User: What shape does this take?
Amino acid sequence: MDEQATLKIHRGDSAQGEMLEYKIPVAPGMVVLDAIHAVQATQAPDLAVRWNCKAGKCGSCSAEVNGKPRLLCMDRMDKYPAGEPISIRPLKTFPIIKDLVTDVSWNYEVNKKIPPFKMRDNKGKEPRFSQEEADRVQEFRKCIECFLCQDVCHVLREHDEKTTFAGPRFFVRTASLEMHPLDDENRLDLLKDQMGLGYCNITKCCTEVCPENIAITDNAIIPLKERVADEFYDPLRKLYRIIFPEKNKNS
Amino acid sequence: MGKYQTFQYDVVIVGAGGAGLRAAIEASAQGAKTALVCKSLLGKAHTVMAEGGVAAALSNVDSRGDWKVHFRDTMTGGKFLNQWRMAQIHAQEAPSRVRELEEWGAVFDRTKDGRILQRNFGGHTYPRLAHVGDRTGLEIIRTLQDKGIHQGIDVHMECTIRKILKDGDRVSGCFGYQRESGRFVVFETNSVVLATGGIGRCWEVTSNSWEYTADGHAMAMWAGAELIDMEFIQFHPTGMVWPPSVKGTLITEGVRGEGGVLLNSAKKRFMFDYVPEMFRGEFADTEEEANRWMKSVMANKLPEARRPPELLTRDVVARAIRSEIRAGRGSPHGGVFLDIASRRSADDIKKKLPSMYHQFKELADVDITKDPMEVGPTCHYMMGGVRVNPETQESTVSGLFAAGEVGGGMHGSNRLGGNSLSDLLVFGKRAGEFAAKHAASVSTSPHCDDEQIAQSAGECLEPFNRTQGENAYKVHEDLRLLMQTKVGIVRSPDDLKEALIQLDALRTRAAKVKVDGNIQFNPGWHLAMDLENMIDISEAVTLAAQERTESRGGHTREDFPDSDEAWGKQNLIVTQQGREIKISHKPLEEMPDDLKQLFKK
Assistant: This one.
């Protein structure tokens, strides 16, 4: 095929970078990641990009294409106007390592702070729950950790509140534990005090970019906000806690 | 030299897919100071690509499916070349490993009475695969990851191991580089567990990611370990064939497990014509019977009818598809049709196969609830690997362990779908356990030889010293094309001979590639180094394929189309002596009588 595409790709590291232009031939069904691989193979072998599964299942190849957070492996070239250059930049919210690769290690640190799954006491019986109960958390467990939601969330992107705010990915993760039919841990203190759930003002930017179509705001964040509100701001509960401080430790 | 970082651990695990993570959890549970070293970010390993499910005889859906049937299916599927003891341990321990995942928070799909649901799959007599829609691998890796990070395991992400270091006859550490900085790193340890996955990047059409560059297979061979069953490569019957961008991308066997059928250009269900002698009697003869089976399964009843032939083992189905295409009965883009649209409702398809629906819609403009998919074989899994002790997973080199795809022997000549996720859980756990015990049993601290380290570092940096030379990508492309055309599903003696000559030429070219840029996150450099593993292991595969003059499972010879009884009692062993890769024969260990009884009908 004779058709050509022009890519403008960020090249450089944390100290300095520039947008360099590359031209490559287009094949049917090509995705942006294929175009980047073509550039690597023929023009810039040292171009740094992360990828693994190339099927939208691992969440490695996140970047910003024409300013929009995308998985490069699921982003069709024919979606973009022919003849116009396509710009590919690394995620803005995280520090650049090189070219399209960013330092996402902060996310792994946040994840460590969330208390793990704790199996309830099933009294020696095989645990049972319905598919309907499973459905509720399976939606959250679809998350591929591409961190596009983290990239687009203004609390992180504009305000860089990484010390006080965990970001949508970890609200989804916490929701997957809090709503797990067999879990017996309480993470509401953590959500309120350390994960900064209150900072989210439900603009739904995260939901819009999720490649797994998880209803992050509606199904994870809002129900968690309600649980926190019930736990800490319900006047009757507050009174109950004052009267029975012991009983309330693990409520 | 001296320009490298050094770490000390009791156990170092190379690779953080299911096997590596499970090994790390076990090693640290045993009290070993454990490192988990992975080429990608944590949670991105190839296990996330596993779709259909994990095979375990839970007997939740059909009570007839105990471990003995699982063992029998595994041995039959492997055409009896499996190490029987591994297949036995695997079938016996898989249910506990799956239940344990549930205790750690995994959420499998449920039966009506709230237990773990199991689905039908190729080669499994009863519904055996615990699953989560078509993203079971993601569920497993995330469960293990979230368990592992609270266990005090040190994770070294984006770090590639290049060499096993030895002190005399035993392992003393491993050497590699940080991808981000390009700096070298040495892990001093008495126990190394290889959990590096497979070798699919040696073929042009593959479902495997960039990580599958035969690292562990090559490192083990270079360190003096034996490899086994290297001629057996699994070509998964159903990869995408169109558009070119996604050629090879996996379509789960779950599509057929959920009722999908294979059709040729005349809309004929051709699999009825390809039931091999050894499976005759176990599969439906007619569409009517196959449809009856399907009806019972859909109605949650125990089927009396026999299974549809689309659920034959992968080697059989892949060869059948290849034959249909070669006979001119293929689809427009050189595959055959896989139809689920006319078999299940749109809602069912979206619920049971959500990522397949999404994948075809986004990447191929096909709505699988309305139209059939076009599919063809894709290089998917390496049956062969490091020969290990079935109980401990230790290789023939003291202190070197292997688990998951890089381990060999469990699957014989052909792996059943769903037996990979269970393999990596069962043997990942064992590898971690025995690696920790080994580390505790060695009284001396590991000593890594400076000279070995300096030599490895020098080899890695060599491509930067060349002022001219070709680009590693071109050599890799030619290697993949060579293996695809000469060492594919069906092999001829002339092709294999030619492949060996070409591999030599590629080795010469690989030794002269030039790398641009610097050592920081430089994929061109990383690939230049990986060529060495890929070419050596491609040669090992080709030599073994040349030696085995019969057809069996994932090895089909054009000139010897049938299985041979004498070959059925022999494994091939690959070792490296000096620079030379050698093949030897090893008689299979005989099965004890109580297991033999299971095959009498």
